[in-house]
Amino acid sequence: MAIRPILIIPDSKLRQVAVAVPAVDAEIRTLVDDMFETMYDAPGIGLAAPQIGVLKRVVVLDVAKRRDEEATSEPMVFINPKLVWQSEELSTYEEGCLSIPDYYEEVERPAVIRVAYLDRDGAPQQIEAEGILATCLQHEIDHLDGVLFIDHISRLKRARVMRKFEKAAKRDGEDPRPASRA
Ligand code: GNR
Ligand code: NI
Questions:
Q1: pTM (2 decimals)?
Q2: Is pLDDT above 90 for 140?
Q3: Which of 10, 26, 76, 99 is the most exposed place for a label (fewest CB within 10 A)?
């Protein structure tokens, strides 16, 4: 198992469409293990493979449910997930993204969804999701299509956050020795 670096915007890999997994083999299961380790380390409640630079349609989630005082961990794997139904009813949730650190904004999405996918063993499954699970699954499926949650907010807010991260990337790429120029 390994923690892999999480890509930050404006990395172009975050804007590409990931390819379907043809077979759930040992290599995919290793990828899944690495994604869980990376997600829990971050920490986050979801991770899509493109966020670690792997353009495959693989998602992991752990929307740790709080029953009483106890947080129960519930690791979930979705391979080739596909939205097969969405409610007309919408719900709003304040979203964040490990690829856009320290930025949070409200996003409106379908409140209830049905998703078809392959599980860790390659068996076809379907799940009906609502609440944070529905929000997070849609956020992750978006990643597989190169879509980020900031694509669902106003142009002005998106332009502002993009500019900030573009500047930061440029700054980090520059010669980090300004004093030595004198
Ligand atoms: O950790 C995460 N939290 C989160 C909160 C609200 C809506 C979506 C998310 S997903 C995010 C991790 C991430 O970036 N997944 O792609
Ligand atoms: Ni994200």
A1: 0.94
A2: yes
A3: 26
Return the residue matching tokens 């966020």: 51
Strand partners, 58: 79
Rg (CA), the chain: 18
Is 94 one of the annotated active-site residues of the chain? no
Atom of ligand 1 nearest to the CA of 94: 6
What is the mean pLDDT of the segment spanning 164-179?
Answer: 83
What is the 125 CA–ligand 1 centroid distance (Å)?
23
Residue minimizing CA distance to atom 13 of ligand 1: 97
User: Measured between alpha carbons, how far is 67 from 45 in angstroms, rounded to an integer?
Assistant: 17
| CA distance readout (Å), 178 to 167, 168, 169, 174, 181 | 17, 16, 17, 10, 6
Residue ranges of domains in the chain, CATH in brackets: 12-171 (3.90.45.10)
Q: Name the residue with tokens 């630079």.
A: 53
Instruction: Give which of 18, 56, 70, 62 is closest to 39, Cα–Cα.
Output: 62
147-to-86, 91, 96, 130, 140 alpha-carbon distances in Å:
18, 19, 14, 21, 9
The pocket of ion ligand 2, defined by CB under 5 A, consists of: 97
